[in-house]
């Protein structure tokens, strides 16, 4: 496995763990407060369905949606990066920094910390633009 494939694999697994953690965070708050919006979930714990999700669950859902707007694009660009043989030495930096930025973005989102949430988001976007340029430069 070459360097780009290795770091792509590590980034993919770490991003999966991060997204799973957001789901667990939502479940932790729902179960901890026995507050569920879905009637069948509320009935399971003998409660009435909540009118809306808990604030922590809503915030985590927005962080999750932001991941769904960014991580699939990163994963697709990562495959293209490897397929065209873009600069392997850049892969460790681009894939690692993107992954770290997404972790920080989620942390800052859950804690409501600005401007750092936006900075973390921007760092991830810069990584994807840089990956795109590297891919185009590697094309014959």
Automatic annotation (TrEMBL):
Which keywords accompany this UniProt record?
A: Acetylation, Endoplasmic reticulum, Membrane, Transferase, Transmembrane, Transmembrane helix
Indicate what this protein is called per its UniProt record: Microsomal glutathione S-transferase 1
Which organism is this entry from?
A: Marinobacter salinus
Which reaction equation describes what this protein catalyses? Answer: RX + glutathione = an S-substituted glutathione + a halide anion + H(+)
* Subcellular location as annotated: Endoplasmic reticulum membrane
> Can you provide one Gene Ontology molecular function annotated for this UniProt record?
glutathione transferase activity
Topology relative to the lipid bilayer, per the entry, is: Multi-pass membrane protein
- The EC number of this protein is 2.5.1.18
Got a GO cellular component term for this one? membrane
| Top-level lineage group | Bacteria
The record, for SUPFAM superfamilies, names: MAPEG domain-like (SSF161084)
Coiled-coil region list: none
- The organism's taxonomic lineage, starting at the top: Bacteria, Pseudomonadati, Pseudomonadota, Gammaproteobacteria, Pseudomonadales
Subunit structure, as described in the record:
Homotrimer; The trimer binds only one molecule of glutathione.
């Amino acid at each position: 496995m070459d360097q780009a494939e290795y770091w792509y694999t590590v980034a993919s697994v770490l991003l999966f763990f991060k997204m799973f953690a957001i789901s667990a965070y939502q479940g932790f708050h729902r179960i901890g407060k026995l507050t569920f919006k879905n009637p069948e979930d509320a009935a399971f714990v003998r409660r009435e369905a909540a009118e809306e999700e808990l604030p922590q669950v809503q915030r985590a859902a927005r962080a999750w949606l932001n991941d769904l707007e960014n991580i699939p694009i990163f994963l697709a660009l990562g495959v293209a990066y490897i397929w065209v043989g873009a600069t392997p030495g850049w892969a460790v930096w681009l894939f690692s920094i993107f992954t770290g930025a997404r972790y920080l973005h989620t942390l800052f989102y859950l804690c409501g910390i600005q401007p750092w949430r936006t900075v973390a988001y921007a760092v991830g976007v810069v990584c994807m633009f840089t990956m795109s340029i590297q891919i185009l430069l590697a094309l014959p």
